[in-house]
Amino acid sequence: MRELTESTVLALHALHLMTRQTQAVTTAEVSRSSGFSTERIEEILSKLGHAGMITAIPGEGFVLARAPAEISIRDLVETIVEPQTPSAPCGGNFEACPSRACCVLAPLCRSAEMGYQEALRSFTLAELMHVPLEFPNCLDPKLRVEVP
């Protein structure tokens, strides 16, 4: 499986906060709970906004623009991560592999890529609605969201 980038996990963290809170989430709240600068958070939230996943409420913060079940992790990954050229001949990306027609691992790579894409497509924010905010942040397990 390909790794989810730090930016993708940070975006997922921000969206998770929005699924669990009843009021708008501020940049400062995401920064405090993730340990990242407000500038980095603003960059991520801007991409999410341009993709139509969140809406800014002036003076309040951000809310989801769509229902959690309508936002897949694949949509999130495609919004946040720039497509990258594989570093190895195939880099685990079957479609980019120039030797897939004669590679002994081609069937395994194709199956792995298809499974990865299906998992990202089928997993939505709705899957996280019951995950407590108090769970540690996977970017920095020492940081936790303060729940009033």
CATH topology assignment of the domain at 6-84:
Arc Repressor Mutant, subunit A
The average pLDDT is 81
CATH architecture of the domain at 6-84: Orthogonal Bundle
Shape: elongated
- Beta-strand proportion: 5-15%
Would you identify the CATH H-level superfamily of the domain at 6-84? Winged helix-like DNA-binding domain superfamily/Winged helix DNA-binding domain
Identify low-pLDDT runs.
none
Which sequence of SSEs, written as H and E, runs from N to C? HHHEEHH
Major sheet details: 2 strands, antiparallel
Q: Rg from C-alpha positions?
A: 17 Å
Category from helices, strands and their pairing? mainly alpha
Which CATH top level class of the domain at 6-84 fits? Answer: Mainly Alpha
- Level of helix content? 40-55%
User: How many H/I helices?
Assistant: 5
Distance N to C terminus: 37 Å
Structural description of this entry:
The chain is built from 5 helices and 2 strands, in the order αααββαα. The radius of gyration is 17 Å and the shape is elongated. The chain has a two-stranded antiparallel ribbon with strand order 1-2. It has a domain at 6-84: Arc Repressor Mutant, subunit A. By secondary structure, it is mainly alpha-helical. 20% of the residues are buried.
How is this fold's topology laid out?
Blueprint: H1 6-20, H2 27-34, H3 38-50, E1 54-57, E2 61-64, H4 73-80, H5 106-122
Antiparallel strand pairs: 1-2
Helix pairs in contact: 1-3, 1-4, 2-3, 4-5
